[in-house]
Amino acid sequence: MPNLSFTAPTTVDEAVRMLAGGAGLAKPLSGGTDLLVQLRSGRMRPEAIVDIKRIPGLIGIREEAGEFVIGAATPGVMLSAHKAFEHAWPGIVEGADLIGSQQIQGRASLAGNLCNASPAADSVPAMIAARATCVIAGPNGRRTAPVEAIVIGPGRTSLEKGEFIVEFHVPKPKPHQSDAYLRFIPRTEMDIAVVGCGVNVTLDGNGVCTDARVVLGAVAPTQVIVEDAAKALIGHRLDEITNAALDAAAQRACKPITDKRGTIEYRTKVAGVLARRAAKLAFERAGAR
Amino acid sequence: MSYLDKDALKVVGTRPIRPDGVDKVTGRANFGADMTMPGMLWGKIKRSPHAHARIVSINTDKALTLPGVKAVTTRADFPDIPPEKRVLGAAPANLWDLSRNCMAKGKVLYEGHAVAAVAAVSPAIAEQALDLIEVEYEVLPHIMDVEAAMAPDAPILHDDIFTAGIEPRPTKPSNIAKVVRFAKGDVEAGFREADVIIERRYTTKPVHQAYIEPHACLVSVAPDGQTTIWSSSQGQFMVRGYTSRIVGADIANIRAIPAEIGGGFGGKTIVYLEPLAYMLSKKSGRPVKMVMNREEVFRATGPTSGAVVEVKIGAKKDGRITAAQTVLKYQSGAFPGSPVQQGCICGLAVYDLPNALTIGYDVLCNRPKVAAYRAPGAPIGSFGVESAMDELAHELGIDPLKLREINGAKNGTKAAHGPTWVNIGYQQTLEATKAHAHLKTSLGPNQGRGIASGYWHNAGGESSAACHVNEDGTVTVTEGHPDIGGSRASMAMMVAEVLGVPFETVRPVVGDTTAIGFSASTGGSRVTFAGGMAVTQAAQKVVEELKKRAAITWDISPDAVEWKDGKAYPAGANAGSFEPLDLTAIAGKSARTGGPISAEVQINAQGQGPGFATHICDVEVDKETGQVKILRYTAIQDVGRAIHPSYVEGQMQGGVAQGVGWALNEEYIYDKDGKLENPGFLDYRVPVASDMPMIETVMVEVPNPRHPFGARGVGEVPIVPPMAAVANAIADAIGVRLRDLPMSPPRVLAALDQVEPMRQAAE
Lengths: 289, 763
Fold this sequence. Notes:
- The complex is a heterodimer of chains A (289) and B (763).
- Chain A is built from eleven helices and 14 strands.
- Chain A is of the alpha+beta class.
- In chain A, the strands form four sheets. A five-stranded antiparallel β-sheet of chain A has the order 4-5-10-6-7. Chain A has a four-stranded antiparallel β-sheet with strand order 11-12-13-14. Chain A has a three-stranded parallel β-sheet with strand order 1-3-2, covered by helices on one side.
- In chain A, helix 9 packs antiparallel against helix 10 (240-253).
- With 763 residues, chain B is α+β, with helices and mostly antiparallel strands.
- Chain B is globular.
- Chain B has a domain at 6-28 and 460-605: Aldehyde oxidase/xanthine dehydrogenase, molybdopterin binding domain (Aldehyde Oxidoreductase, domain 4), CATH 3.30.365.
């Protein structure tokens, strides 16, 4: 591994300069739980690694103007430790809590999970379902993008050279709004999603859905926002007919591949199952508020 | 004296803390990769990217010129092994095959097969050098599937292998290396008598032993040829002997020092790295360390066979089996030697069969050469037989446990493969199963219960042990077997029992090849039996010596001395009146009575007791995802005598956990070119802790009279029943029979999808 530079700047501007500076590949580092594995396996050979954890604000959660602001390098365990956030978005916390082991969750960050750009990333579907956005710093200053705009294919993001995610903004839930995330793995833990599904719903006082977002993971090159699934839910209670429509919509949205983790048929079928099960949880939670 | 009377025992049967426990839980224990030496180099292996190819040329020039590279080795450095030297002593390996498995000759036979190795001053430089070794291949058609490999037009791996075990001797080479056959009575007549016949086909996938510790060694060859090997294995004498033949060195020039072993399960009963490190050390003049990574472990070591198992069983309406027949086709990988014979034997050994026939095929294919894996071969054959027994029970309308009671082997039963059983405990495991509370609990929707039995013959063989009384009266016990299942504790307990001293005063040591006499490897569940017999005899000799020393001290006849509770007493009033002498007193004065007090024993242990087990498994099936959850699991086993009950229970639980992995998720996934796609624990799915319930254990003790304490092997039987127990439970839960392993969620769901439309149509 010749000529690998490592820096740990303390300001966003410095980090951008270091990421944008060289000709070769430069990678931001937060928890390192994907990056270090890729370095070791030789899959990733960056020229520069820029540790962003020392930049003030990059780790931690704060509440501002009706939003949660989550630093990009915030490890998963800090989400569940933040009682207000956990109460607000149990589905996002569920997703983060499924990544790797407890040790991994002590390091792995939301931004890392997103920018690793795996279609199976567990923390991403519920973030998209919650309509979270991210603030991106780069050579041309700062911009904001919805989370779903980041991943454009397996291992590929829309971030330009020198850009990195600084923080996420997650709106606070409205009355009777909640979420859920479920994934399917062949074991009980320590595995990668064969299918993942995040569901975020808002209900009226009678339990009828007024707004919804259903997001699938691991069934296409990127996370998929299933518009038809949201349509199946909006205006309905979660009865048998709604469930059947939701299941069918989720299955239709799948464009999976057959690989070592699952077949096309299997992933498609289970996507429908998880959509129903996650919706049931989300409806229960939203109804209880 | 006999130690078979359990009530008279003071140490054996208790649960002291294992002598190696503190080191292991505090991280002090030294495993294979923990040794370093001054001036040490790092060795790395260049491996084949092809499943089957001819090696046209290997050019190492560029690698050798890379600064920091000190040696490169290829096949050209290794001697051919003539036929008379291919077997060493009673060891099972064909060393010519093993040599060509360690370093390919002429052809590569699987992806990951070693073609060259380098030694350099750092791992990074060694890695870099690998890329500079140029290997030209002529890619050949490859064959992965066992039945495809048996087809007449299949690509042939070895043109000098002609099927053994058939007459007349074939004239064309074949991938079928061997056919084995055992018969009893007349199966055709037996099937004619049957009211019901079940005929089914089952398949299993190759599975890896999945030890946590990758293979690792450090080898130092001096200019005069004297060599030290530090490595983790299941036998330091195996490492010494196998390496000597593969590199062409004398055994007396090699000292093999056993490291702690981080799991072996049979997979460390052969060598991979030591001969390569030897050659690199010899060429460079420096010690060479080699450590595999996990990917290499998956691509180039283990596994056990994938197989096809065809089972036919006929029975009368009352449940009596009239005939049973099995045909087993096992993958051996790149070289012959699948455990198909044990599969043939063990599957049928559980039952009293008037007529039986079993035929096994040992089949080559372009996969890593199989290595032993816990009860090698037995779980595969038993998955077929025990599943078919469940299907037969269903067909007959007889309770599966009852069907086994009717047909189960007893003392006096002549097994299909020949022996007549004595002192076996199979029926006792069925009684304990029947009495167990587990069977009385009720099941919910989509839940089911399965039972299955299993057999493993266990092993005896060559062992050495030494028992030394130290100057202060404490005791050192030296044995020749690496401790992979708590055997240090068991050895020390047996010695403490014989000497009548506290367990804590006896310290066990696993000696290197110069510290103790030859001992066969740890495997076949043989150590507590054979090693235990050796240490017991050594301790008994020491007792005789201690009595002699007391007699000298008292000036009476040794016959007039009695050894009791760790002390010498005059045997009765006629012997005289003396204060008893304990170990400390005798040892402290040993110089005056004849010198150091020690005994070493060498034996070839015979009379290992067969092991039988019956397991109960409850599952719940998620019918929408096909996921199977193990709800409750109870393993019932005849253990002979549990020397250290906790470690016996641990063996039973470990075997079940591995069997459940085999049943549910473990499999190798190859692409169309024969390249492994899942060489890691992320996608090669062994169970994680949260997948398993607490595994309940019931130790049935039918002592083995051929062992001083009644022990039989316990480590392997527990992996035999689980796959069928799980399959039978799934069938009970959802009414669908899965006959192909692994019973992973996609397969279970596909099986459900096949029957659901039929069910709905029927309704």
